[in-house]
Amino acid sequence: MDHLVKFITKIDQNGAPLRIAIEKDIFEYKSLFGGLTTLVLYSLSLTYFIYGIVQWFTNQSSPIITTSQQSNERSKIQIPNLQDYSLFNFASENKIISCFDKENLVLMILLFELNGVDQPKFLQRLEINNEAINLKNNTFYRNYINEQGIVQDNQLMLIFTDCDTNLLNEDEICANQTTREAFWRQVNFMKFTQHFQMFDHQQRQIQSMERTIYSIYTNQQTLFMQGVLKIQETEVDNGILFSQISTYQFISDFTFQTQSGPMELYKSMFERNAYLIVTLKLDSIMNKQIIQYPKINQVLADIGSIIQIILFLNFVAIKWNQSLYEKDLQDRILKIYFPQIDFSKQSISIQKIQKHCVEKISLVNLVYEISRLQFGMQKLMDRDKISELHQLGIEFNQQDNPQDNKINQNQEDSNLNSLSQEMQESICKLTILKSQ
Fold first, then answer.
1. Residue 348: pLDDT band with limits 50, 70, 90
2. CA 207, 209, 213: angle at the middle one, nearest 5?
3. What is the pLDDT of residues 7-21, one digit of tens each?
4. Helices 402-435 and 363-380: crossing angle, nearest 10°?
């Protein structure tokens, strides 16, 4: 049991170091310069600590963002708001003819779906709202295996064609031949507004963005535009201390390739005139993004490293205090040996004396002087007298009789005076022998 207690005591890492006081209750030498330095450096450290924590709380700390590209082998994505299409015209005549006027409808927009090498499948006619068409809630597949085990790979196709009476609503009328000819004499534009998204690492949420392109279409040739949708998969680790990963998938970019071809080529495919064809499909390459927000332990480590650099300037204050302490200690030693001399008023140099003061306060010199006193006492006093020194002390009397305490005190004083007188006589004998 004793061995176990000794072992546990030995491995104690919280031992209190032995500190020798310079004066009563003063264990360290401190100065005004050191105090001002401490105040400034610790104020700067606290300010930077608060600044770093505020930056972390307000998402101002830059996350680690890793971006790569990989093959989009299999994916499925539903897009709530993909593209807006609006048509506008310029005419040399005073009146501009709109192709989406319900009473003189010139064009219709038909939506088809193309799966692999099959014929395009008609889905619906897109409705017109305020001279614009909005393509919403569409699902795209790329090598996606559904529940029936069928591989799906699709693309959407929009065809701008002539008004078809079989597809009219009750309040719509197709334009006559004169109106159609006047419409094609105009300069007709198509405006594409593309909707894509990006992850805002400062707000920690997905932000929607838009991009607009323009295209001219005529009744002489078919304008074919192939649009490729770039998918981005973003993994966000926003845990405070441990990993907490959220995954987002969205359309991050569009690319379009445009070409023109004879109308007869597409007319044979769709059995109708096609003035403008727009296809949309998923890209075969997908962007992969990993965002790692700094955790509290990383923030504290970064702040701590900067604070350590700031507090390194304490070295200047420590050296300054050491210099002041050595000078103050030298002055005190000089006053002990020469109490009646004011060295500040002396014209003689005291550098040599100060050098001896530095030697005096060294540990080796203190041990050396104590050993000289020990050897001197051994030469001047008998062994029995030296042994009596170990027995000296003040006897503690718990009785409250003041007369007895006084007698004991007188007896101790008498013993000390007798020993002191013997030591003085021995020192006098040593002095006489030394003078002879």
1. low
2. 170
3. 888 888 777 776 666
4. 90
Q: Tell me the two tokens of residue 380.
A: 């001047």
DSSP one-letter string for 34-47: HHHHHHHHHHHHHH
Average pLDDT over residues 312-328: 84
- In angstroms, the CA 330 to CA 299 distance is 47
Note the pLDDT of residue 411.
56
| CA-based max dimension of the chain | 150
Q: Which DSSP letter does residue 394 get?
A: P
- Following DSSP, what letter does each residue of 309-320 receive, concatenated? HHHTTHHHHHHH
For residue 230, which of 201, 200, 252, 256 has the smallest C-alpha distance? 252
Structure tokens at 312: 């390194």
pLDDT of residue 434: 38
| 280 sits in which H/E element | strand 276-282
C-alpha distances (whole Å) from 62 to each of 56, 75, 203, 292, 303 are: 9, 31, 12, 9, 14
Distance CA 278, CA 192 (A): 10
- What's the pTM value of the predicted model, to 2 decimals? 0.63
Distance of CA 292 to the CA centre of its chain: 9
Half-sphere exposure in the Cβ direction for 69 (13 Å, CA): 5
- pLDDT at residue number 399: 55
pLDDT in tens, 298-312: 899 999 999 988 888
